[in-house]
């Protein structure tokens, strides 16, 4: 059994399925976890999906697997589900030793799932063309991951970056994506700075640039044209307008 001490900013990687768990904050008996997963793996949150929707989706995915494999996966998922509830109750009761043991059991179940051949992502899956990719630049983790999840649910390839410097480096090292969705106010290197440099270098000639901000274009001296940004999305962003702008079907 692999036993780990989990601190803020630690992570656990499941390379066979391409999933990484980020322990963003561990404090006062609560753990804030971020999940990085391939776009073909759906990560469900109960506050965003009704229980019956999540159950239907899981049942549909499992139905394609052999019966004995489905049975084993359901057993592991059951252990994880019960374990998470038990872990929460033990932490609430300040029984930290028992909570730690339960967490290790949950982790072991996740590792067994990671080794399940039926869940391995095919190595030969062809990559999506760069022209369909959205590069999402946002320094706030929650906002970045929620927008990325929204796009991935529509089968849109997404690259997530944390600031303007990372965006500049990405365009220097990769083919131009179809879209750049970038926050305007960020530390280190903000949106207007990154856009100005990339425009001057001709790196955005084949990319549609969408700005996201809680303020107006005038506040940043950004124009809405071929020299600035193609669209300006005010926060809070209307998801239907964003999906429509990148040619995604809106339900």
Protein described:
The model is unreliable at 46-51 and 121-128 (pLDDT under 50). Strands 5-4-6-7-8 form a 5-stranded parallel sheet. A 3-stranded antiparallel sheet has the order 1-2-3, with no helix packed on it. The protein is elongated. The longest helix has 26 residues, at 67-92. The protein is of the alpha/beta class and 251 residues long. 40% of the residues lie in helices and 18% in strands. The protein has helices spanning 51-62, 67-92, 96-114, 141-152, 164-173, 191-200, 217-220, 239-245; strands at residues 10-14, 19-27, 30-36, 134-137, 158-161, 179-183, 208-213, 231-234. It comes from Stieleria marina. Keywords: Bacterial flagellum biogenesis, Cytoplasm, Kinase, Phosphoprotein, Repressor, RNA-binding, Transferase, Translation regulation, Two-component regulatory system. The modification 4-aspartylphosphate is found at residue 183.
